[in-house]
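Priority: medium. Attachment 1 of 2:
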């Protein structure tokens, strides 16, 4: 029978620990190189994220265009506030039920942009499913009764 070579597990563990330490040092070095927030001494500075609203500039032609530009900026800010309130609200009234939804390509692309923008740029943790659920729950809770009344009126007029 062939003799099997004895493996020293302590040596293997030490080698693995050394490789792991080298990998961690390499990762930290790369992070330091890529970090724009490193100050002169090399110590990273951590800042809180700032929420910034994007304002669009419209060229001035007349005095009325100035008021239109201001109202557009106010509308964008109001829409973001409404979105934040909606995403921070928990609107389940009963148990969760599952359904499948299909969207057009354009709608899905814009929806993805909205969901990821809310998550990353506004700092609100949300998922795609959570966003669509909250929008539908909000519609049902606020506008369902009015929509049903209008539907009932159309049926009786016909």
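Attachment 2 of 2:
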């Amino acid at each position: 029978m062939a003799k099997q070579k004895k493996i020293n597990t302590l040596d293997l563990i030490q080698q693995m620990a050394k490789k792991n330490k080298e990998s961690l040092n390499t990762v930290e070095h790369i992070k330091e190189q890529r970090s724009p927030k490193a100050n002169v001494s090399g110590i990273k500075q951590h800042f809180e994220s700032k929420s910034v609203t994007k304002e669009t500039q419209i060229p001035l032609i007349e005095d009325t265009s100035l008021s239109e530009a201001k109202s557009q900026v106010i509308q964008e800010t109001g829409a973001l506030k409404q979105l934040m309130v909606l995403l921070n609200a928990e609107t389940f009234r009963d148990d969760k039920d599952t359904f499948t939804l299909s969207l057009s390509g354009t709608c899905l692309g814009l929806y993805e942009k909205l969901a990821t923008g809310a998550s990353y740029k506004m700092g609100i943790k949300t998922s795609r499913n959570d966003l669509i659920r909250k929008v539908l729950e909000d519609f049902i809770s606020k506008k369902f009764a009015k929509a049903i009344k209008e539907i009932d009126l159309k049926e009786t007029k016909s």
